[in-house]
Amino acid sequence: MAFPSLSPDVEARILADAREGGTRQNAAVADVFRAFREPVLGLCVHLTGRRADAEDVVQEVFLAVHRALPRFRGESRLSTWIYRIAIRASLEHRARRRAIEPLDPDVPAPSGEDAIVARDRARKLVLALDRLSVEHRTVLSLFAVDGLSHKEIAEILGVPEGTVWSRLANARKRLTAELG
Amino acid sequence: MSSCDAFEAAIEQRLHGELPEDGARVLADHLVGCASCRAYEANARALDAGLADRAREAHAAVDWTRIEAGIRRRLRARLWKLAVGVAIGVFAVVLATWGFGAPGGTFGVEVGALVSAIVLTRVVVVVREVRSVSSLAAGDELLARHAELLAKQVRSIRRLRWVALAVVAVLAVLAVWATERRQTVTYVTLACVVAATWAHALLVTYPQARRELAELAPDE
Q1: pLDDT, tens only, B193-207
Q2: How far apart are CA A125 and CA B51, in angstroms?
Q3: Are A76 and B138 an interchain contact pair (Cβ–Cβ within 8 Å)?
Q4: Looking at beta carbons, which residues of chain B come within 8 Å of A35?
Q5: How far is CA B178 from the centre of its chain?
């Protein structure tokens, strides 16, 4: 499922509304929420390892967007900025969680033998992803968000375009090694 | 760099629909004779499918109404905090003004200064948060920049812990030497506020920042 991205005109309208404050700002943030909630959730699920944590992070991300959107000057695409916020919020959330408990992936309960095997595979994948370095986990998670091109991913990470492919290939090999 | 590294990057480009036609032809020729790259591609497809499944499950299970309600609840809580902050600020100004005219004492000034310091500290924290989020739009390397900020935070807390301890000690001494009870109360309250802030920074913020930093930059 590829997620829609906002056209520059729509982004400009949202930013203008956000700067007006009050109900127009709330409406602008609601538009941003509807446009980006699903890809942001997908990204946060991979970065945090748990859906419950990802849902918390999604709330934190859009609260931060609500607060900072009027000050956003359009130095980048709105989507780039939001994904950058999401990555940072996920890292902070992980650091908070580590103080209390280790990761226990909330992979859905299965029924049937195939489903049990699939669940076991999914659980191993989550745990292996969790053991990767932040750099590798982040690049794999960004490429797992449908509709994000390598140019956008390079912009989100702030690295040269050519770097993202090699970084992805290295992350993939590391993940494979972690999976044994 | 092994001879297959460039082809692995090309496989990634192909999987994400971004490999140019001439590159696709070269890759196809290479894959015919390279079992290692074929295995890499098959594995990459399986991993992508696993990640996509995980995201799909999350999307299917999520209750957006509950998340929206959570955001609204946090926004309302933030407004309440803002209102309380403004009320405390007004209270501090009133107290400080009252203290100037009070015969034989500056209790109002002291309490006013105390409350103003707390409110101002909170305002500075909020403004810094907003500026920090806004600055994320700039195109510097995200993870390196984040690690740099965390390292700075860790160093600041390390440096300031002794300053905070000294301030608490000075306030405690002033509380003991105070001639009026209300001054003692003020100094003790100030010492408690500084100590609580110090404890939070040292016991919550510092370990969290170090954990994050350890993930981002293990060599720091």
Answers
A1: 889 888 988 998 899
A2: 8
A3: yes
A4: none
A5: 39
* Distance between CA atoms of residues B217 and B210, nearest Å: 10
Angle at B64 between CA B62 and CA B66, to 5 degrees: 100
* B29-43, B100-114, B180-194, B203-217: the lowest-pLDDT one: B100-114
Q: Find, among A23, A18, A20, A24, the residue nearest to A65 by Cα.
A: A18
Helix (H) / strand (E) containing A41: helix A22-48
pLDDT, one tens digit per residue, over B83-125 is: 887 787 777 677 666 655 555 555 566 666 677 777 777 777 7
Quick: pLDDT tens for B38-73: 999 999 998 888 888 888 888 888 899 999 999 989
- Angle, helices A113-131 vs A134-144, to 10°: value is 130
- Contacts of residue B179, defined as CB under 8 A and 6 or more positions apart, other chains included, come to none
A149: closest CA of chain B, how far (Å)? 8
Q: Which of residues 47-106 of A touch B (CB under 8 A)?
A: 51, 54-55, 58-59, 62-68, 71-76, 80-81, 84-85, 87-88, 91-92, 94-96, 98-99
